[in-house]
Amino acid sequence: VLPLDLLSFTGEAREKTNLLTWTTANEEDFSHFEVQRSSAEVGTQRPDSSDDWWEIVGEVLSSADESGLAPASADERSYTFEDNPITAYYRLKMVDLDGTFTYSDVVFLENNLGAAAGAMWVYPNPSTGRFTVDLTELALSAGRESELRLVDVHGREVWARPVTTDQLSLLIELSHPRAGAYLLTLLSDDGQAFTRRIVIR
């Protein structure tokens, strides 16, 4: 049992951000919140509690006094976190100073505002590490520089490649990939982000 009460955890899909907000009470000797995200395919699979489904997208420290510890108080505390405007699941990992932790309920945000430009498709998925990234549905400005990034379930970047938005179909061949779940994200230089969860066997 952690030394806090999580009173609420909600999210709002906006045009330029996914805004997460949560409120706590009775924080005492509490360390931080780890914000985790899953881009499991909507309508096909809901992420379970397994770490294979989740990536770490940020960390929010406890409200603290000058000693670095949250004071013993029943006062409510409010927190916010902003993420890229994509359709995704979110949860909080709430970590005590001694390393013990627990998870919040899962919040699902369907961001059709941020996804209005289209979608990035990856096939085959699952794959052996050789797959095609289809960008034909993305309404990105021609000639803009972008980058494809592949991160593992722990948020570590394992591969990256620069691309231009006039490349509509990319054949990716990873060298000796490890089997597992990954998140493939296209980041454009104007701040747009498109993410697909992929599985390598």
Describe it.
This protein has 201 residues and is mainly β. Helices cover 0% and strands 50% of the residues. The strands form 4 sheets. Strands 3, 4, 6, 7 and 8 form a 5-stranded antiparallel beta sheet that branches. A 4-stranded antiparallel beta sheet has the order 12-11-14-15, with no helix packed on it. It is globular.
List the helices and strands and how they pair.
Blueprint: E1 5-13, E2 18-25, E3 30-38, E4 55-61, E5 77-83, E6 88-96, E7 101-103, E8 107-109, E9 121-123, E10 130-134, E11 145-151, E12 157-164, E13 169-173, E14 180-188, E15 193-200
Antiparallel strand pairs: 1-2, 2-5, 3-4, 3-6, 6-7, 6-8, 9-10, 10-13, 11-12, 11-14, 14-15
